[in-house]
């Protein structure tokens, strides 16, 4: 009985740690969005709702090839072709996915 209780508690701790990791990426993505995307796409609520969660997954697949292509010829092109996007892509994807139009979530950002 003692062993099963220990295993259960270890599982609870592991799940708790994973939850905070996901949340941390989402918060980093929110900050990145506000810094790099808000000027063209509006606040986080509006920007994330531009696509469903599946659409965000497709846009960020293959190193973000589709979203990079969508921004070709815009003032955001240098960001998407630079190290900034490469280093922030996963966090941006996590934020946008978390608050996609079909997620049922509402971000608390301006």
Describe what you observe in this structure.
By secondary structure, this protein is mainly α. Helix content is 75%, strand content 0%. It is built from 6 helices and no strands. Helix 1 (2-36) packs across helix 6 (83-98) and helix 4 runs antiparallel to helix 6 (83-98). It is globular and about 60 Å long.
* Annotation field: number of helices: 6
Structural class: mainly alpha
Rg, Cα atoms, Å? 17 Å
Q: Report the sheet-strand fraction.
A: under 5%
Show unreliable segments.
Answer: 17-24
Residue-averaged pLDDT: 84
Distance between the termini: 50 Å
Please specify the SSE layout and strand pairing.
Elements: H1 2-36, H2 38-41, H3 44-48, H4 53-70, H5 77-80, H6 83-98
Characteristics:
mainly alpha
TL;DR of this structure?
By secondary structure, the chain is an all-alpha fold. Helix content is 75%, strand content 0%.
């Amino acid at each position: 009985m003692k062993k099963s209780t220990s295993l259960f508690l270890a599982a609870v701790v592991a799940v708790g740690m994973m939850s905070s990791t996901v949340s941390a990426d989402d918060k980093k993505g929110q900050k990145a969005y506000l810094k790099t995307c808000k000027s063209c796409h509006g606040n986080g609520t509006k920007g994330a709702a531009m696509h469903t969660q599946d659409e965000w997954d497709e846009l960020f697949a293959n190193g973000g090839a589709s979203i990079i292509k969508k921004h070709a010829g815009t003032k955001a092109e240098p960001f998407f072709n630079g190290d900034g996007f490469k280093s922030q892509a996963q966090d941006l994807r996590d934020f946008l996915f978390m608050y996609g139009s079909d997620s049922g979530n509402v971000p608390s950002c301006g």
